[in-house]
Structure formats: structure tokens, C-alpha cells
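[step 3/7] fold_predict: job queued, chain A
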Amino acid sequence: MTVTWEELGWERLADGVGRVRLAGWDCTVGLVAGAGAALMVDAGSCLAEGARLRARARELTGGDVTHLALTHPHFDHVLGAAAFDGAEILAAEGTRTVLGDARGRAELREDAVRQGLDAAAAEEAAAALPVPGREVSGRLALPLGGGREAVLADLGAAHSTHDLAVLVPVPGGRPVVFCGDLVEESGEPQAGPDAAPSRWPAALDRLLVLGGEDALYVPGHGAVVDAAFVRAQRDALADRFGVSR
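[step 4/7] structure written:
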């Protein structure tokens, strides 16, 4: 019997494309299914969460996750990555240095605990955290089989030191763009110590060029939005950080 996205608590955005909003930090994880391949966008906040996501993906696609794209190196998006053993991990250029550095992993662990993750779960996930096998500079077209591809785009430092977006073209439908935390809907965009506020509005300009006016933009936190929302958030961030429009 075929299970539907909705039956598993996921939101279907197009044929073979969907996302789930995770409990705790309202973090979005995306899934893109091809023919014999599947791309997951972000990994959850701990190994147990990552394992649940991998199992759900198998139910939805009939196969295993073959590729994992990490939108940015924050704990709620990456600490489940070790649960995807065997998947190719992709991220923006420079992410490998952050995730492979002992100090970087310690900061992820400490941030996770500050935000309420169990200390043992945070320690386990940080210790097992893999580094990306492939880094993206500019854009990378990732074939997933059956005519399906995803386009990964390195948008530079903005919300974090290394921000990646994922465009999924949908023939005859609206493209889907997984934005990571470059866009947030359920709260004000967060600029932590690793953010580059002066560069964030320009990154959103590049995001809008990537997706276009008709795309569905999937924030790192919150409901799916349109280009007008992204543009308004871009302008609000420019005002907030004193960046010329």
C-alpha cells in the first residue's frame, strides 16, 4: 500500500517534493525524490531525529537517501547528519572547515544544549558529525534520475558563514526553493555571531534570481512563502542592518 506524504505528517509541495516541520525548533527538512536517488535537505538536530527522517524518507520514496544537502552549519540543521551513513553530503564552500574543526563542533554542541537539546544527545551527535564530501561553489546541478534534478547554490555568508539554497525545478508547476534560514516565516530572522548582516540582503537578491517570481520558497522555519514575502524580508533586513537598497 502506498503511503501519502500527508499520512506521515509531511507537506507535499510537488510530485516527489515535500518537507516536514520538526518539533522543538520548527526546523524544516526537505525531501526530493528521483528515480533511484533521493536528496534530503538538512538533517535535524540529533542522531535520533536524523534516523527518524531517514526512515520516513524510505517510506515515502521506496529507497534510501542518497544525498544530503546541509543549508548552513547550525545545530538544528546538521547534528542529525551522521544518521545518513552512505549518503553523499553536500554543503556550501567552506562548511567542511566549520564542521571538521574541533572548536566548531564544540560550539555546535554548546549551542544545542543552550537551546534545550539533551546534553548527551548533543555530545553524541557532535562527536559523530561527518564533514561534507562535496562543497558547492557557485551552482551545482545534481541529477537524481527520472528527469529530476536539484540545483544547489552557494549564496555566501549571510545568515551564517556558509549559506546554501536548493532549487527544485518542477516542469509544468512552480519551482520549489529550500532556503535554509536565509528566510524565516515563523519568527524574525536571527543574526547570530556567525552572521554577515551587511551581506544578507544581497544573498536574498541572489535567492530571488535563483527561484524567480513564481517559486515556492521554503523557509528554514515557518510556512511556505512567495517571492513577495522574500523581497519584503530582504527590505526589512536592509533597514534593520543599515544596508543600502
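[step 5/7] annotate
The CA atoms of residues 36 and 156 lie 31 Å apart.
The chain has a mean pLDDT of 97.
exit 0
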